[in-house]
Amino acid sequence: MTETTKTHVILLACGSFNPITKGHIQMFERARDYLHKTGRFIVIGGIVSPVHDSYGKQGLVSSRHRLIMCQLAVQNSDWIRVDPWECYQDTWQTTCSVLEHHRDLMKRVTGCILSNVNTPSMTPVIGQPQHETPQPIYQNSNVSTKPTAAKILGKVGESLSRICCVRPPVERFTFVDENANLGTVMRYEEIELRILLLCGSDLLESFCIPGLWNEADMEVIVGDFGIVVVPRDAADTDRIMNHSSILRKYKNNIMVVKDDINHPMSVVSSTKSRLALQHGDGHVVDYLSQPVIDYILKSQLYINASG
């Protein structure tokens, strides 16, 4: 398959991220590597979407803190971004509604822009033209060649360093560059783009608990979008899927990451990281990156047993 015929993917992870751990970031990396190895997908972006404060989970610190910790955790990544939309809503949002928001956003702006914590999504959409005529759509002298789909998430300058862009699925699109001639009409090639929910096998197993998930939402999440599952603690994902009629129905939309990495997925556990912080356990460095630890200590988070 050529690059343009492969399905382009954005991975979306929803959760408390209370706090975000090294394991959460490893899930993104493992999922991307696996999808690339299948030869069918190109992962062009990752979204971390922390849950709203009104989720009501005991010990959940303010989204203000969780957003900053997430941003610190991904600050060195050139493809994973933190999106505050879910936190900025008036109330808690379902996973289904978060997926639909990002899908609708891409439709509305013919691209996907992932803002960082402090920057609203106001950056112009950037795409890849089909014609070969040089066009200065990037105002960054360090970018000497036209971007490809594989490079489109690269850092293209400080002002654009926190965006994720995809080529719009339309034949013609008016690109407005504030630093060039306005209204330049350019031709874009069409690509297939999907948002996939990234989760651990524990979330997959929760689909099997009667009444926990709205069945209509499950149909949309698994049937319309699809999910990428990173197994935790040698979970039997086939057994889990056989316990749910919806998961069985859409089994082809569920991709289970299979790789040779044998690190314990317990490092994903925010609960264990909080306990380590409360007990002054030096092993907290196994769970959390140093910038996140520094922020937690500076802000005096998770010090009390109450979270």
From TrEMBL:
Its EC number is 2.7.7.1, 2.7.7.18. The lineage of its organism: Eukaryota, Metazoa, Chordata, Craniata, Vertebrata. GO terms for molecular function: ATP binding; nicotinamide-nucleotide adenylyltransferase activity; nicotinate-nucleotide adenylyltransferase activity; protein ADP-ribosyltransferase-substrate adaptor activity. It is found in: Cell projection, Axon; Cytoplasmic vesicle membrane; Golgi apparatus membrane. The keyword tRNA-binding does not apply. Its main location: other. The gene is NMNAT2. Its cofactor is Mg(2+). Monomer. This is Nicotinamide/nicotinic acid mononucleotide adenylyltransferase 2. The keyword Transport does not apply. Coiled coil: none annotated. Pathway: Cofactor biosynthesis; NAD(+) biosynthesis; NAD(+) from nicotinamide D-ribonucleotide: step 1/1; Cofactor biosynthesis; NAD(+) biosynthesis; deamido-NAD(+) from nicotinate D-ribonucleotide: step 1/1. One of its GO terms (cellular component) is axon. One of its GO terms (biological process) is cytoplasmic translation. It is a lipid-anchor.
